[in-house]
Design brief:
Blueprint (H helix, E strand, L loop, with lengths): L8 H12 L4 E10 L11 E2 L1 E14 L4 E6 L4 E6 L13 H12 L7 E7 L9 H16 L6 H16 L6 H8 L4 E6 L4 E6 L4 E11 L3 H19 L14 H6 L6 H26 L2 H17 L6 H11 L4 E6 L5 E9 L3 H16 L4 E5 L6 E2 L9
Parallel strand pairs: 4-6
Antiparallel strand pairs: 1-3, 1-13, 2-7, 3-6, 4-5, 7-8, 9-11, 9-12, 10-11
Helix pairs in contact: 2-3, 2-4, 3-4, 3-5, 4-5, 6-8, 8-9, 10-11
Bound molecules: alpha-D-galactopyranose.
């Protein structure tokens, strides 16, 4: 399966002009794949995501009034909202993320201008590659720049997360918005989700980043995500009996958890064990990437998947099968589920020479065993969000 063909700035400009009869400014923000560190971000822990070369694109021009007119290409739908009455807007799926971002920016005291917006995404929706964060961040840049407001990128990420938490109602962590804002070409970022300090970690030059989409998204995902967060919070409350100073599972080591496991009901213990051991795996993995220690990377990715499957219970048959098939192929340096779980994608590190046979053989076997034809992409680590520059012959 070839990669989805990314849009170009020229295409977005043309489509915008055809729709709104004006010439836009264009902004782009990428989706992401997470190498390791799943469900750790909302526990103040560590993650190792990569911004990928699939983006959301937003064309924008200012209006004279305080309205946002939002055309969402992926839904072939247009929505309108008055910036002074966002609270009474009837939420519709095609525009809930962009309107949520406008809401959180205004809540934070940033007075926006009315705008016409054309939104087009390369990131497959609902596949666990953070299409939503890419929409949020690209919209935030478009709205802020049009209003002449300069805002630090980490603040942009936090306000986008707030939009998702409070306007959309998904209690996501900061990973997706942060990497969409700060991604670095050819690198992953080791992000400390408490301090929001990030360090760039070079990706192996001999391996490609291959993403396999199971093509399923089980609809318990959103509910179960919020349940897992609540279970982690319960774990922290119970562990406080032994460690009053802890604020999050980030503050607990494996040894401490084992020593006091009798404080926790079985299920809560397993949830905590996933988070605590996953944090340790992220730090080891970052060091292994820096040393080029491929055996360790492979083991940590496998352990991460097992822990997500057995302790955190956010995998599913299709993800487990996709990983099982992947690790039996030649030239695979690591494979695991990526993102929130319950469907979506796996992430695989595959030696360049092995990518083509990997794509064919994993695609064939997965289809034989599930009846589903998976999308398999080889992605590049890309730069974070930016204003897109039109190359001269692309101008419309
Ligand atoms: C989703 C959320 C992230 C993170 C991952 C799991 O992608 O948006 O904040 O919690 O799930 O690691």
């Amino acid at each position: 399966m070839p990669n989805p063909r990314p849009h170009t700035p020229g295409e977005i400009a043309q489509k915008f002009s055809a729709h709104f009869r004006k010439k836009p400014e264009i902004y782009r923000a990428p989706g992401r794949v997470n190498l390791i560190g799943e469900h750790t971000d909302y526990n103040d822990g560590f993650v190792l995501p990569v911004a990928v070369d699939l983006s959301c694109w937003v064309g924008v021009t200012p209006r004279q009034d305080r309205k946002l007119v939002i055309y969402a290409e992926n839904y072939s739908d247009q929505a309108e909202v008055d910036l002074d009455a966002i609270g009474s807007w009837q939420k519709k799926p095609s525009a809930v993320y962009p309107v949520g971002v406008a809401w959180s920016l205004e809540q934070a005291g940033h007075r926006l201008k009315g705008c016409d917006l054309y939104i087009a995404g390369d990131v497959p929706m609902g596949s666990g590659l953070s299409s939503s964060a890419s929409i949020e961040v690209a919209t935030a840049l478009a709205l802020l720049e049009t209003a002449g407001i300069q805002l630090d990128r980490t603040k942009v990420a936090l306000l986008c997360q707030q939009a998702e938490n409070e306007f959309v109602g998904a209690r996501c962590g900061i990973m997706d918005q942060f990497i969409s804002c700060h991604g670095k070409a050819e690198h992953a970022l080791l992000l400390d989700c408490r301090s929001l300090h990030a360090r760039a970690i070079p990706l192996p030059s001999d391996a490609a980043l291959v993403v396999c989409n199971t093509m399923v998204k089980h609809n318990l995902a959103a509910n179960e995500y919020n349940n897992r967060r609540a279970e982690c919070e319960e774990g922290v409350q119970l562990l406080k009996k032994a460690f009053p100073a802890i604020a999050a599972l980030r503050d607990v080591t494996s040894a401490q958890l084992e020593q006091h496991r009798q404080l926790l009901p079985g299920k809560i213990y397993r949830r905590c064990r996933h988070v605590v051991t996953e944090n340790e795996r992220v730090l080891h993995a970052a060091a292994a990437f820096e040393k080029g220690d491929q055996l360790t990377i492979a083991r940590l990715m496998a352990d991460s998947h097992t822990s997500l499957r057995d302790d955190y219970e956010v995998s599913c048959q299709e993800l487990d099968l996709m990983v099982e098939i992947a690790v039996s192929q030649k030239g695979v340096l690591g494979a695991r589920m990526t993102g929130g779980g319950f469907g979506g994608c796996t992430v695989n590190l595959v030696e360049h020479a092995a990518v083509e046979p990997f794509v064919l053989s994993v695609g064939r076997e997965y289809q034989q065993r599930t009846g589903l034809k998976p999308d398999i992409y080889s992605l590049e680590a890309a730069q974070g969000a930016e204003a897109a520059v039109l190359v001269p012959n692309e101008r419309c």
